[in-house]
């Protein structure tokens, strides 16, 4: 069985998780960024990594996912939000809905990651204009806590995720 890990990353979060997952796969494997040239038809298992953009996966990943047919798929992603509430589940659902039904989704993993510094700065500018806005203050705190992610716990969870599903193939 031949495996492909393919990912999209802006801040390096998803790349970090992709490399961790890649290193855990005990099969013949390749790793590519989503904007590189590769033939997904050569692989039995495709592990797809994305970063969250507006509640779903980024556009590069959407374009990639739409091309894939008749494959076993594992998904993983990173986002700035904390792992609380139903938000993580809603993201997973939206991403999985993009995948054609002729594929088999084996599993899906999400973890927190630092966000783009430009977005943090934008929120700080918004706070200057609205210093009493509690939502903006809370969002900045969340982004600051996210700055240490993905951390060693996230990486261990990614390792366990891939081990669990690789052994079922």
UniProtKB/TrEMBL annotation:
<protein>
    <submittedName>
        <fullName>Flavodoxin family protein</fullName>
    </submittedName>
</protein>
<dbReference type="InterPro" id="IPR029039">
    <property type="entry name" value="Flavoprotein-like_sf"/>
</dbReference>
<feature type="domain" description="Flavodoxin-like">
    <location>
        <begin position="4"/>
        <end position="163"/>
    </location>
</feature>
<dbReference type="Pfam" id="PF12641">
    <property type="entry name" value="Flavodoxin_3"/>
</dbReference>
<dbReference type="InterPro" id="IPR008254">
    <property type="entry name" value="Flavodoxin/NO_synth"/>
</dbReference>
<dbReference type="InterPro" id="IPR054633">
    <property type="entry name" value="BilS"/>
</dbReference>
<dbReference type="InterPro" id="IPR052200">
    <property type="entry name" value="Protoporphyrinogen_IX_DH"/>
</dbReference>
């Amino acid at each position: 069985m031949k495996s492909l890990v393919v990912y999209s990353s802006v801040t390096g979060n998803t790349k970090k998780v992709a490399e961790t997952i890649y290193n855990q796969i005990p099969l013949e494997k390749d790793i590519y960024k989503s904007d590189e040239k590769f033939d997904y038809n050569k692989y039995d298992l495709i592990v797809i990594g994305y970063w969250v953009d507006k509640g779903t996966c980024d556009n590069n990943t959407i374009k990639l996912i739409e091309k894939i047919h008749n494959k076993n798929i594992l998904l993983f992603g990173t986002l700035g939000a904390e792992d609380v509430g139903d938000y993580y589940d809603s993201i997973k659902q939206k991403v999985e809905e993009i995948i054609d039904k002729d594929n088999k989704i084996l599993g899906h993993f999400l973890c927190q990651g630092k966000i783009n510094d430009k977005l943090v700065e934008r929120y700080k500018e918004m706070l200057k204009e609205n210093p009493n806005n509690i939502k903006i203050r809370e969002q900045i705190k969340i982004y600051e806590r996210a700055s240490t992610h993905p951390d060693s716990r996230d990486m261990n969870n990614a390792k366990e995720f891939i081990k669990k599903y690789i052994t079922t193939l």
